[in-house]
């Protein structure tokens, strides 16, 4: 196998990759990814600047866009907390309990920096603890 | 004396830059964590820095490096980013009225630095400034400070991750903690039902469907149902 060709090889399908596997991100794929991310992100930011003088959207479209962030937070967080390994786990699950505690902490102390620090430390502690008792 | 008259005239780029310090303090730990995680996911310091430079949108960058690590295609990451970042349309829509006389160049420049945090700060400051030219300079200052710190602290985090290979399982939880904190500050009685619906749908779809498809499907469905319901309520109330 020629080393140079490696740059052009696509990622193997999801199932064949172990999470811990060490490898280099492939440049072409990375450039494509950044390009698309920039396109959609900058696009969302700049289009209203280019198209509107100062009007606002109303009705269903506005309600929909307003609800996307909270729905997204649910979709990003809840499955990760409830089914970290692919099936529903409640008791022996540091993600779920660290998540609940972080939420309560953030409700009391609305500080991003302290909240993240709290979450990471609690997760680390619970992870260690549950390994011991398992 | 005359200082009260002169002060508002002096508000400009530097004033905005100084105001952005409150954002910088919040961005620093998040960007450092992003840099560390990126290097742990096999992304180089410069690639992480480039991503922060071009994309400049925290949550979507964390998701992107995780998806890259899991072997997702660029299109899949692009689509997920669209879902995550479409909210910028709303923020952008609600700041453009500050700049009715803006040129094309100002439009392109001011849009670049619009994030959740700069949006909130700019909306608060710009209300108090009477002249449009000044508002533009202030917003450019706020955005520039936030942007520079995001890129610089990403690179710093990347270097930390590269030179000090820290074995701390807590990093696995950094992104989730960030999202949970955002949830804690944005969950209200008005959107609670949409949140619960999206959560249930996401768990069910995740167990049934391959990859990250469940994110897009559950968000579109839950926000759609929530919006239909809210639109109908709005009509009934009028």
From TrEMBL, chain B:
<comment type="similarity">
    <text>Belongs to the AzlC family.</text>
</comment>
<keyword id="KW-1003">Cell membrane</keyword>
<feature type="transmembrane region" description="Helical">
    <location>
        <begin position="75"/>
        <end position="99"/>
    </location>
</feature>
<protein>
    <submittedName>
        <fullName>Putative branched-chain amino acid permease (Azaleucine resistance)</fullName>
    </submittedName>
</protein>
<feature type="transmembrane region" description="Helical">
    <location>
        <begin position="138"/>
        <end position="160"/>
    </location>
</feature>
<feature type="transmembrane region" description="Helical">
    <location>
        <begin position="214"/>
        <end position="231"/>
    </location>
</feature>
<keyword id="KW-0813">Transport</keyword>
<feature type="transmembrane region" description="Helical">
    <location>
        <begin position="166"/>
        <end position="185"/>
    </location>
</feature>
<feature type="transmembrane region" description="Helical">
    <location>
        <begin position="49"/>
        <end position="68"/>
    </location>
</feature>
<feature type="transmembrane region" description="Helical">
    <location>
        <begin position="21"/>
        <end position="43"/>
    </location>
</feature>
<keyword id="KW-0812">Transmembrane</keyword>
<dbReference type="GO" id="GO:0005886">
    <property type="term" value="C:plasma membrane"/>
</dbReference>
<keyword id="KW-0472">Membrane</keyword>
<keyword id="KW-1133">Transmembrane helix</keyword>
<dbReference type="Pfam" id="PF03591">
    <property type="entry name" value="AzlC"/>
</dbReference>
<dbReference type="InterPro" id="IPR011606">
    <property type="entry name" value="Brnchd-chn_aa_trnsp_permease"/>
</dbReference>
<dbReference type="GO" id="GO:1903785">
    <property type="term" value="P:L-valine transmembrane transport"/>
</dbReference>
